[in-house]
Specification:
This protein is an alpha/beta fold and 368 residues long. It is built from 9 helices and 20 strands. The strands form 4 sheets. Strands 6-7-5-15-16-17-14-18 form an 8-stranded mixed β-sheet, with helices on both faces. A 6-stranded mixed β-sheet has the order 9-3-2-13-20-19. A 4-stranded mixed β-sheet has the order 1-12-11-10, with no helix packed on it. The protein binds flavin-adenine dinucleotide.
């Protein structure tokens, strides 16, 4: 069997689904997503806690409080000013305001604070499926349980994608394969830098009345090295920046639960940040892959030496929030030849050229 498509997207995670959505929004119906398992079965399905607590979390606009120590004061001021220049409702606040926003927050040790009003959190699985559903309504074809096993080329141009059951003739292929992107790269002899780490998140359950409301802002706490937010009745989700898992990771089999050591450590840190949660009971959590590049930023753009091959991978733990704009930019790259924002700083070539991106925050490589 064979078919033809204008664009074949390899990977039905949130990036692939967002790209398909944006292509179809612009009237391009001949788009095929090939997904080796099911939609959001990779990283995109691991951003949610639904399987732990139950229910569908969806988008909650709760705002976000930052608190930093002296070494990150300048970075916070810089980023707040940058956001304001682009119309983001964000601003510096004082410790009292931070404590008013997050009742019970221990601000000791922090020297600068910011509050971002429109921030919130959402469900990676639900968002992926929503993008994909709209793409399908716009004419896209989504082939689940369909791995891409090869990519055909012809005189330096992409010519087709091979699956176990068919050949899809196409002149444009997007590699949106998340932690498997390097394997897809090798199908056309391209070595893509990609390092897998484990991201662990813990859920701490705190019995009422010590709980705090669901619309309490999330906190990025640089004093204790944590981010946390309330989730459901009487639960707090807490994550810590560094990777506790030190073994070799394989995208086809990795721990899906946080280690006891991780849970114990983040519980202690959370108790320092929010003393009112100190009596909380850890309820487990979940873990997933951080698909990291050498500078913890994604690779977006064309692949060198092969016309029609587009790269969209390596979101390094922040791909959920970037997926809406990434999908739009990749769709523009395909349809207009250049996106409306300059994506050259995210090119594949930056690694060889030594133009790695740097975070302004001293100890957090993934915070811009
Ligand atoms: C625990 C955890 C917490 C996170 N928290 C946040 C957060 O707070 N904020 C944030 O912005 N981001 C967060 N992230 C990161 C975010 O989830 C990822 O960056 C994002 O989901 C990556 O999406 P993707 O589409 O690139 O990859 P994936 O979702 O992994 O999708 C890739 C897809 O490609 C498919 N595939 C691979 N190879 C093939 C092939 N040969 N043929 C067909 N299909 C193939 C896979 O099956 C997979 O479904 C978190 C991630 C984890 C694990």
């Amino acid at each position: 069997m064979s078919r033809t498509a204008d664009v074949v997207i390899i990977g039905g995670g949130i990036q692939g689904a967002s790209i398909a959505y944006h292509l179809t929004q612009r009237g391009h119906r001949h788009v095929v997503i090939v997904e080796k398992e099911t939609l959001a079965s990779g990283c995109s399905g691991r951003t949610t806690f639904d399987e732990v607590v139950g229910g569908h979390s969806g988008w909650v606009q709760c705002g976000l409080v930052y608190m930093v120590t002296e070494k990150d004061r300048e970075a916070l001021h810089h980023n707040v000013a940058l956001g304001q220049r682009h119309g983001v409702p964000t601003g510096l606040v004082d410790a009292e305001e931070a404590r008013r926003r997050v009742p019970g927050l221990n601000t000791e040790g922090a020297v600068a604070f910011a509050f971002e009003e429109n921030a919130g959190y959402g469900d990676g699985y639900g968002s992926t499926v929503a993008f994909a559903r709209r793409a399908r309504e716009g004419g896209a074809t989504i082939l689940q349980n369909t791995p891409a096993t090869g990519i055909e080329t012809d005189h330096g141009h992409v010519a087709g994608v091979i699956t176990p059951t068919e050949r899809i003739a196409t002149r444009t292929v997007v590699n949106a394969a998340g932690p498997w992107a390097d394997r897809v790269g090798r199908m056309v002899g391209l070595e893509l830098p990609l390092k897998l780490e484990l991201i662990e998140e813990a859920v701490i359950r705190v019995q009422a009345p010590d709980t705090y409301p669901i619309d309490t802002p999330s906190v990025y706490d640089f004093v204790n090295g944590l981010s946390f937010r309330p989730e459901g009745t009487g639960h707090t989700v807490v994550a810590e920046g560094s990777s506790y898992f030190k073994g070799a990771l394989d995208a086809d089999g990795y721990p899906t639960q946080p280690s006891d050591r991780y849970i114990e450590d983040v519980s202690m840190r959370l108790a320092r940040a929010m003393p009112r949660l100190a009596d909380g009971t850890p309820r487990g959590g979940w873990a997933g892959l951080l698909e990291g590049t050498p500078d913890f930023h994604p690779v977006l753009g064309t692949a060198p030496g092969l016309e029609g091959m587009i790269l969209c991978y390596g979101f390094s733990g922040h791909g959920f929030k970037e997926a809406p704009v990434t999908g739009r930019l990749i769709a523009e790259l395909i349809l207009d030849g250049r996106p409306s924002l300059d994506i050259t700083p995210l090119s594949y070539e930056r690694f060889a050229a030594g133009r790695l991106l740097r975070s302004l925050y001293k100890d957090d490589p993934i915070m811009a």
